[in-house]
Queue: 3 jobs
Job 1
Amino acid sequence: MLNPQLNKHGELQHLLSIEGLPKSIVNHILDTASSFVGVSDREVKKVPLMRGKSVFNLFFENSTRTRTTFEIASKRLSADVINLNIQASSASKGESLLDTIDNLSAMHADMFVVRHSQSGAPYLIAKHLNDHKQNHVHVVNAGDGRHAHPTQGLLDMYTIRHYKKDFTKLTVAIVGDILHSRVARSDIHALTTLGVPEVRAIGPHTLLPGGLEQMGVRTFTNMDEGLKGVDVIIMLRLQNERMNGALLPSAQEYFKNYGLTPERLALAKPDAIVMHPGPMNRGVEIDSAVADGPQAVILPQVTFGIAVRMAVMSILAGAKE
């Protein structure tokens, strides 16, 4: 079975998931991203690598932050960017997803950045394009259902590499709603691919999915135990809609057991970094003193995210047909 993300030359044709990507390609994306970060961590250079190319942002699900960083990344590559609010257009008229893709392909799209509430939607689009010999059109998964969020996983890896240099000596803890988190899945696949020897998942039983051990992850329901001696802490956003369900008692109870406070952070290594995909629920999954403290690298993550998305799009645009 050929990897649907790679072309016949073994190059990246679509970015659909970190799962199954060769380590060499993950490292190539991270290396390319570092060439776009300027002299300071807060600066991302502009380059003309995609001049004359059209990038369509197809967001079937709201996400201002992810869409904005893709838009900035496209413009820094000198691409033309078309943002489509799909909720208000074709989908509500009953037009099928693939009809929408066909119409946009006819408008000479070069790349689709797709966010969809259904797991697998970006795969469906990529398969449809390949089946119709539209190999010059590339698909980037900007988050699909509970399945994957590969560019978030890659920007998390870039951030870890920037601060910690060597993946092969790290203990990384992912904390929170792992059951519903596409970010957690992408991070776990990326961390194991890059050779992190210990990945921990910390959360209540109700939010830890089965099968984590088979993915090489150690699970903890006790936050204090799980944080002992870790190098990196990745806090996940607790979805507000889940706080009212049967999975969690209350936001206050959650914070008491799983919120990252300065006291809990002290259990990790003294130079541990704290990450969060955003937007944060302060006082629910993370204390403001930690979020704004010296060990948090949450804002650099956002800056690096632009460089990583530029790297992914420039590599796809340069792939042979």
Job 2
Amino acid sequence: MSGIKEIAELAQVSEATTSLVLNGKGDASRISSATQQKVFEAAKTLNYRPNISARRLRNGGEKVLPVIALLWTLDSRASLVGPFLKGIQTTISNYNEEFDLMIQPFLGSQLSEIRSLITGTRFNGAIIVNPTEQDEQFLEAANPSIPIVLYQRSSQKYSCVNVDNFKSGQEVATLFANRGHREVGIVLPNVSSTAIRKRKEGFLTMADELGLHVRLENIIFNDFNETGGYNAFQKLMQSSILPSAVFVASDQMSVGALSALNEQGIQVPHDIEIVSHDNYEVSKFTIPPLTTMHIPLDEMATACVQILVDLMHHQVTAPIHKNFETHLVVRETCGGFK
């Protein structure tokens, strides 16, 4: 197995420089970005895997286990980590070996700040959730030293666990047309997200094909939380023509939307129908309960872990792509297909 000496020779730098770079101390030691990149590329060429276990043992760790990192954006979606984490923990518990799980928050569009993705000095593999489109660009240009699985993102370079968000948007538009709606709207989280963008594109494309009218004033962006949904519908109710059906691209925002409509005496589904997205636990307890597109969260979390562990054990080679189906869960905010 290749070590510091072999990497240093290939990169044509000293062993001391190589050690500093691979231990994540390159910036602090004022080693140029170009030199650091040479070291990382040499390490990748030689299939170098940092011995995290040995480092932790030297640091006095009592039990040395492989480390799986869950990288989750530090924004309003952090509240949704629980259901995903449950799926990960259940899957890990089914293995005969043990793993340590590290939850690593990161700011959207600042994934590049997590140097361990490149150096591999803190964890043995990573599941990345909710990266922005800027984060995705960083990953495409980067050469990480550890295996990575992306959740709800697409990449030819990395393993991915995904759903067809474009198709989900199409299905909601088809449902609205089938139920006889003509004036419709869409409320979206104001975040940089390929998944959200695809839902929007699928909905608007199919709406146009089916002759649904989506006024520009009825395409509304707001914060990715309950307050954002509330504020979005406050704005929507000022529209010159109120749509008879609205696609809200997240359950969180739908909770606020229902509150705003209730305050104004607008009845759901009699005055306006709503279809949400995700089918998180809250969606069946709203008043009225939300019709929503279901994402198989537990199954997708399981797939993320299984693919990552196989990559860590060199049982498969990246990229592995696994796609899951979404489906409509009909509750009281909107009826089913007629």
Job 3
Amino acid sequence: MEITKLSDRLKRVASFVPQDAKLLDVGSDHAYLPIYLLQNGRIQNAIAGEVVEGPYQSAQKNVVEHGFEEEIQVRLANGLAAFEAADGITVITIAGMGGRLIADILDKGKDKLEGIERLILQPNNREDDLRNWLSSHGFKIIAEDILEEAGKIYEIMVIEKGQQSLTAEDKRFGPFLKQSLSPTFKVKWQKEMEKLIHALTQIPENYLETRKEIEDKLEKIKEILYEG
């Protein structure tokens, strides 16, 4: 069986998984990520968690086709309910969901995170909500990444245990991303500026509070992009 081809987004997520990890992949999408990591000798074993019957069946079929029935267990479960302490999971990946949903999954299963060494999270939106939850629950961001794929921009957060104080600016832009100012980061926030400028044209002049709120957001983006 040939090596599973991953999207650039999932390859980037995979790059942050430590060698010899025991992985839980939440919302596993055909179990592509754990299969790829096993084919490349990166992890010991994995649980592929799916909450919907169709994707669960697809993941099971894919695992069997690749001959990884012993190494990957596919479980029909919601979020972190897919594993127990006895599974010895060390790393959790959650990719391709909204930031609020990821925060909700972590919050519902927070009692199970004690033995986890690393979380690798790829929210599709509301990254600020996710960073806020993490900083409020004893987790710190140790690395961030950003990439563009098929016209969409994705952020990746690498999380470990520890205290971290994040400013409102950190939560919005990402503490590492705002420092690196990568071309993709600039594209993302230039697009956001364009949306805000357009929004301003739609708001009547006498809506002073609303206009001020948008203008403040614009000013903050300009500070990060051009003065940081």
